[in-house]
Amino acid sequence: MIETLLTYDTELFLFLNNLGTERWDGFWHIVTEKWSSIPLYVIMLYLVYRHYGWKGTLVVLVSVALMITATDQLANLFKYGIERPRPCRVEALQSQMRPLVDGVGCGRFGFFSAHAASSMAAAVFLGLALRKYYRYLPFLLLFWAVIVAYSRIYLGVHYPLDIIAGMFFGGMLGWVFYRVNRWGQQRFNAS
Predict the structure, then answer these.
(1) End-to-end CA distance of the chain, in Å?
(2) Cross-strand pairs, 94
């Protein structure tokens, strides 16, 4: 059963990865860079400050820092516990895929994607924190998280299951940290 699932995962990866064209390669390289999200997160920080003030923003920043650390550490725990090679490391796939990173930039293990987990955690957390002020913001943030996650398949460094698992764990951690943040906001504002 697991072998069948992994076979389907590889086939879906090859299909999605081969949808790419040289014309779009630069765009997807930019999307996947962690630094490319900074303008979005600066805007989110401004919106948080606007609605939560300095104290609330401080609580949100601490929550987000802990959340991103948790997603990265959990992803590393899975990566080194499961040790599933990334597609760009599988020699049998090299002739069938469009690898857009070299072996050095590829990384060793891929299950699950820290990019997908972190971007989904941030999207869920910030979307929930700001949804009462901006009705469509959660959907825009989720769309961004999906785009970032897809960029990892496009570049040939993750399988779809790596992405789905990363988005699942990231979404769960985003929700948990949102709940903890709400509790912290209430405690911080009460003092």
Answers:
(1) 55
(2) none
Strands (DSSP E) along 43-179, which ranges? none
Alpha helices in 83-92 (DSSP H): none
Entry pTM: 0.89
Query: Residues 115-151: pLDDT tens digits?
Result: 999 999 999 999 999 999 999 999 999 999 999 999 9
Record the tokens describing residue 60, joined without a space: 């949100």
Separation CA 96–CA 101 (nearest Å): 15
Torsion sign (Cα): 68, 73, 77, 79: positive
Band (pLDDT 50/70/90 cuts) for residue 20 is confident
d(CA 122, CA 175): 9
Q: How far apart are CA 140 and CA 134, in angstroms?
A: 10
pLDDT, tens digit, 9 for 90 and up, residues 79-110: 999 999 999 888 888 889 887 765 556 888 98
Task: Pick the closest to residue 149 from 35, 7, 28 (CA basis).
Answer: 28
Q: To the nearest whole number, what is the mean pLDDT of the chain?
A: 90
CB contact at 8 A, 135 and 146: no
Q: Is there a contact between 168 and 114 (Cβ–Cβ < 8 Å)? A: no
Ranges of each domain in the chain: 44-90+108-191
Q: Which residue type is seen at 175?
A: W
> 2: part of which helix (H) or strand (E)?
helix 2-17
